[in-house]
Design a protein that fits this description.
Layout: E1 6-8, E2 11-13, E3 17-19, H1 28-36, E4 41-43, E5 47-48, H2 49-65, H3 71-76, H4 86-100, E6 105-111, H5 120-127, E7 131-136, H6 147-162, E8 169-173, H7 180-188, E9 194-197, E10 204-207, E11 212-215, H8 225-235, E12 242-246, H9 252-261, E13 265-268, H10 270-275, H11 278-293, H12 323-328
Parallel strand pairs: 3-4, 3-13, 4-6, 5-6, 6-7, 7-8, 8-9, 9-12, 12-13
Antiparallel strand pairs: 1-2, 10-11
Helix pairs in contact: 1-4, 4-5, 8-9, 9-11
The structure holds flavin mononucleotide (FMN).
C-alpha cells in the first residue's frame, strides 16, 4: 500500500489533500465529516482583519460615548483587552475543532494592513491552531500607488505576524505582481513556512440583458488548474518554503499533476462544494491507484519530477505563445 504522507509547514500530513478555507470549514461538525472522508488538514474559514478591528472600534466608541474615557486613554488602550465577540467565536471554533479532530487545523486571516489586528494571531496560537494562513490581496488598481508600495505591505504583514507567533505561518497570494517569480522567491525567504498558489477571487460579470453588474461563478472549474500548475512547476525548488497548490483541483489526476510539478500539498474547495466530501476519498483512491501503477511507494519518490528544474523540457512551462499551433491548427483537430 502506497505511503501518502507529506510534510507541509513542518507538519506531517497523512496525505496531500487539505480542505481550503471556505464555508466548508466554518463548523467543527462539517470538519469532522471532512476528516472522515480523508482530508489530511483543514484551513478554517477566514476571519477578516476588518472584523477584528471593527469589534475593537465599536467597543472604543461605546466607551467614549459613555463619557468615562479621557481621549488620551485611547492611546494607551490595550486592544487585546477589549471585549470579544467575533474573535471569541473564532477562537471557540479553533478550540472546538481541535478537540474533535486529529488532523492539523490551520486558522486563516484575510488581511490588507499590518496594523491593529496583529495581536490576534497569538490568541489563535493559544487556542491550539497548528498554523495560520494569511490570505493577502491588494488589487493593484490604484493609479497613485507604485508596485513597490503595494508589495511592501506583504512584507510588513509577514514580519509583524511572524514576530508574534511560534506556529507556522503561510501566505495565500494572487498572481497580480509586477514580477511574480521574484515576489514568490522574496516572500519565501521571509520566515513564512509556506506559500499557497493561488487564491481565487470574486470576479465581477456583466448581465447584458439587464445592464447590471453581477457576480461571476463562485466555484472554479477543472480548467482553472493551469495557472497554478505552471507556477508551482516554475517555482518548485526555487523557493525557501513549502508550496501548496490551490484552484481548479477537481480530481485525482489534478492532485497528481500538482505533486509532479513540485507542490508539497494541495488545497481543494470547489470540487467538494460540487460533489461532497466523498470527492476527497475518490481523489485519494485515484492517487493510490496511480502510484501503484507506476511503482511509487511514497510521494517523495515522484514529487517535483516534472518541475521546471527537473523536467527535460523546461521551456514548456515558459512558453506563452501558440506559435507551433498557430501554423498548423485548423480547428479540425478538436
Ligand atoms: C464559497 C467560498 C468561500 C471561500 N471563503 C474563503 C475564505 O474565507 N478565505 C480564503 O482564504 N479563501 C476562501 N475561499 C477561496 C478558497 O479557499 C480557494 O482558494 C478557491 O476556492 C480556489 O480553490 P478551488 O478551485 O478548489 O475552489 C472561498 C471559496 C469559496 C468557493
Amino acid at each position: 500500500m502506497a505511503n501518502l504522507t507529506v510534510s507541509y509547514l513542518g507538519l506531517t500530513l497523512k496525505n496531500p489533500i487539505i480542505v481550503g478555507s471556505s464555508g466548508l470549514t466554518d463548523k467543527s461538525a462539517s470538519i469532522r465529516s471532512l476528516e472522515r472522508n480523508g482530508a489530511a488538514a483543514v484551513v478554517l474559514k477566514s476571519l477578516f482583519e476588518e472584523e477584528i478591528i471593527l469589534e475593537k472600534e465599536a467597543m472604543l466608541s461605546r466607551m467614549q460615548s459613555g463619557g468615562f474615557l479621557y481621549p488620551e486613554t485611547v492611546d494607551y488602550y490595550r486592544y487585546e483587552d477589549a471585549p470579544k465577540e467575533t474573535t471569541a467565536d473564532y477562537l471557540d471554533l479553533v478550540r472546538e475543532t481541535k478537540n474533535q479532530v486529529s488532523i492539523p487545523v490551520l486558522a486563516s486571516i484575510n488581511c490588507m494592513t499590518a496594523q491593529q489586528w496583529t495581536w490576534f494571531p497569538k490568541e489563535i496560537e493559544n487556542a491550539g491552531a497548528d498554523g495560520l494562513e494569511l490570505n493577502l490581496f491588494i488589487l493593484p488598481s490604484d493609479l497613485n500607488r507604485s508596485a513597490e508600495e503595494n508589495e511592501k505591505v506583504y512584507f510588513d504583514i509577514v514580519q509583524e505576524v511572524c514576530s508574534k507567533v511560534d506556529i507556522p505561518v503561510s501566505l495565500k497570494i494572487s498572481y497580480y505582481f509586477s514580477n511574480l517569480a521574484t515576489m514568490i522567491t522574496r516572500l519565501g525567504s521571509t520566515g513564512i513556512k509556506g506559500l499557497v498558489l493561488f487564491n481565487r477571487f470574486y470576479s465581477p460579470d456583466i448581465d447584458i440583458d439587464n445592464l447590471q453588474i453581477t457576480s461571476g461563478s463562485v466555484l472554479s472549474t477543472p480548467g482553472d488548474l493551469a495557472l497554478s500548475l505552471r507556477w508551482i512547476a516554475i517555482m518548485a525548488e526555487r523557493v525557501d518554503c513549502d508550496l501548496a497548490a490551490s484552484t481548479g483541483i477537481h480530481d485525482g489526476p489534478a492532485v497528481i499533476k500538482q505533486l509532479l510539478a513540485g507542490a508539497n500539498a494541495v488545497q481543494v474547495v470547489s470540487a467538494i462544494y460540487k460533489h461532497g466530501g466523498e470527492k476527497i476519498t475518490e481523489m485519494l483512491h485515484q492517487l493510490e491507484t496511480w502510484m501503484d501503477k507506476h511503482d511509487f511507494a511514497s510521494i517523495d519518490q515522484f514529487r517535483g519530477k516534472m518541475s521546471q528544474a527537473s523536467t527535460d523540457n523546461p521551456a514548456a512551462f515558459e512558453r506563452v505563445q501558440f506559435m507551433k499551433y498557430f501554423r498548423g491548427f485548423t480547428g479540425e483537430e478538436i
